[in-house]
Design brief:
There is one protein chain. The protein is α+β, with helices and mostly antiparallel strands. The chain has ten helices and five strands, in the order αβααααααααβββαβ. Strands 4-3-2-1-5 form a five-stranded antiparallel beta sheet. A hairpin with an 8-residue loop joins strand 3 and strand 4. Helix 2 runs antiparallel to helix 6, helix 5 packs antiparallel against helix 6 and helix 7 crosses helix 8. The longest helix has about 70 residues. The radius of gyration is 30 Å and the shape is elongated. The chain starts with about 35 loop residues before the first helix and ends with a strand.
């Protein structure tokens, strides 16, 4: 858990449109002033909500025979811990996925560079091969031409003695050949390193998905111990309001809200950034909604909360492992957890008790 951060006073700015569900975002943090918080939120600010890391991770297991059956409160506490751990790990998954995307793009660039340097190297190799053959036939070179005209740039650079012999009469071409060899060798080595990094990142993603799936199974087992009414408010999601957005779309905030409404019932997918059939995770939904409105925000919830201006309510920070879009009237649109779809849900229960802060682009 990170050290709580202080937050700045920011005077909220009301939208001139008067539309409740598409006003500019205002900051919210959870704590003792829940009643005041809910009242302020009903003014209709569009926000991205950072949900706190509020519970220590509790183990699931132990000897069933040696321990009494857990109480409802204990089961809910374990669920809260699992949800927190899963949210944190889910955002780590997003971070690795982002790194993988960057590495893939880097490898594509390196592959293009390698192909270009290979073509230049091969062209120079033909020229030097002719020079070397003449020199060798005349006795001006003491080593076989094949060593100098190898397809391996490393082997060419290793044959410095031959290059030195030829450079006396053809210094410009030999220097170009050396340069082409070094460029190709460097590009090949960089591409190899990038490929190795990609394999490492893919392995890291696979490990995280395995842990996330285990946490999901543990959470489902705990939920099965609760009666349906007792499950309310134990974690992200849980049903709520439906309907669509019928307000104006003249501002960027209104466009972001409209987009979020249009993603209702889309599936939750780890690392998902849409479109609907590909699914969303929590920060993928908020990023895509603001992207639709023409505003670029970071991919991961931690970065969204850290880099965007906040509007504080003088309480505290504790996590930022989950984000959603507040759409006014005490409601938010959220991509909650695997197995659930994007939904409109009241800012109450788990959401209100774990509320950490709010930001706006």
């Amino acid at each position: 858990m990170r050290t709580p951060q202080s937050v700045r006073r920011v005077r909220p700015h009301r939208s001139s449109t008067g539309a409740c569900e598409a006003d500019a975002a205002r900051g919210v943090t959870g704590g003792k002033k829940a009643a005041t918080l809910t009242g302020r939120l009903r003014r209709g600010w569009l926000i991205a909500i950072g949900v706190a890391t509020v519970a220590a991770v509790a183990g699931i297991g132990g000897s069933a025979g040696a321990l009494p059956q857990p109480t409802v409160a204990q089961v809910k506490a374990r669920l809260a811990a699992l949800n927190t751990k899963a949210a944190r790990l889910g955002q780590q998954y997003d971070q690795v996925l982002q790194q993988l995307s960057v590495a893939d793009q880097r490898l594509k660039v390196l592959d293009k560079e390698t192909a270009r340097y290979r073509a230049n190297f091969d062209a120079m190799r033909l020229q030097i091969g002719r020079l070397a053959a003449v020199a060798y036939e005349r006795g001006g070179a003491s080593s076989p031409v094949a060593l100098l005209t190898s397809a391996s740039p490393q082997q060419v650079l290793d044959e410095s003695a031959i290059l030195t012999e030829l450079s006396i009469a053809n210094s410009a071409q030999i220097n170009q050949y050396r340069s082409a060899s070094r460029q190709l060798l460097n590009a090949q080595q960089a591409a190899t390193q990038a490929h190795a990094a990609i394999l490492h990142l893919k392995h890291s993603l696979a490990k995280r998905i395995a842990v996330l799936n285990t946490l999901k199974q543990q959470a489902e087992a705990l939920l099965a111990q609760l009666a349906p009414p007792q499950r309310t408010g134990t974690g992200p999601g849980g049903g709520g309001g439906g309907g669509g957005y019928h307000g104006p779309t003249s501002t960027q905030a209104q466009k972001a809200v409209s987009f979020a409404y249009n993603q209702l019932n889309c599936p939750y997918v780890y690392g998902g950034t849409g479109p609907c059939n590909a699914g969303y995770d929590c920060s993928g939904l908020t990023m895509s909604a603001w992207g639709y409105a023409g505003i670029s925000i970071p991919r991961v919830s931690y970065d969204q909360m850290a880099s965007l201006p906040g509007v504080p309510l003088h309480l505290g920070f504790a996590g930022n492992t989950h984000v959603g879009i507040y759409v006014g009237g005490g409601w938010l649109i959220d991509a909650p957890v695997p197995g659930q779809n994007v939904e409109k849900i009241q800012l109450a229960g788990w959401y209100l008790s774990n509320l950490d802060g709010a930001v706006r682009p």
